[in-house]
């Protein structure tokens, strides 16, 4: 029996969610279980580091701080206001779920998976231990997805560009400023991907998001 386009979309999204969950766990296992991987991670990250006190370092710190609590609170209120204007309450609820779920997941993982054994591996003095995944990157990517989600379909391309630019600015900032390893950023992206796929699957199953048309439908027109 052939599945409907809705069911195929939901199954595909759930498969991607499982992939993201597995990828997040695999990165953690590689980081803690493989000295070769952790050294490679540190070496690659070191190539992106800015010289302390340089203009690039200042820009990186500025980008990273775009995901501090104060800007995030403003962004959240902005998302709420836009969702009210566009009358998209269910998408707002899903966006809040992704933002809350992803950030809570990351904060729990950060407590369990801090890695002081590589403290100083990047040649930078850190005021705190480095943690996996990156909380700033998680917050930025989840907020960017939230913007895309609550935006009406006809404007989603612009929302995707804005959200991606914000997430990239924060992710690049935390790496270039020496706040996080590249693996921390990748782990954060997969945490957000997991929750984003779950949210989309729920919205599609509930009929609140459109599914792609069948492959032969465009040809028959």
Supply the key terms:
221 residues, mainly alpha, globular
Tell me what you see in this structure.
Helix content is 69%, strand content 0%. It is mainly alpha-helical and 221 residues long. It starts with a helix and ends in a 16-residue tail after the last helix.
Structure annotation, total helices: 8
The description of the largest β-sheet is: none
| Number of spatially distinct domains | 1
Would you report the number of β strands?
A: 0
Q: Which range does the strand content fall in?
A: under 5%
| Secondary-structure element series | HHHHHHHH
Mean pLDDT, to the nearest integer, reads 87
Distance between the termini: 25 Å
Uncertain stretches: 124-128, 216-221
Per-chain topology:
Elements: H1 5-33, H2 35-46, H3 55-64, H4 69-85, H5 89-112, H6 135-150, H7 156-176, H8 182-205
Helix pairs in contact: 1-2, 1-8, 3-7, 4-5, 4-6, 5-6, 5-8, 6-7, 6-8
